[in-house]
Amino acid sequence: MISATHLHAMVIHFPIALIMAGFLSEVISLFSKKDFFRNAAFYLLLLGALGAIVAWLTGNAAGEGIEDGPLMNPIELHEQFATITLWLAVITASFRAGILYFKETRFWARLTGLLLFIALAGAVARTGYLGGQLVYRHGAGVELALPDFNNTSEE
Question: For residue 113, which of 36, 42, 35, 15 has the smallest C-alpha distance?
Answer without folding.
Answer: 42
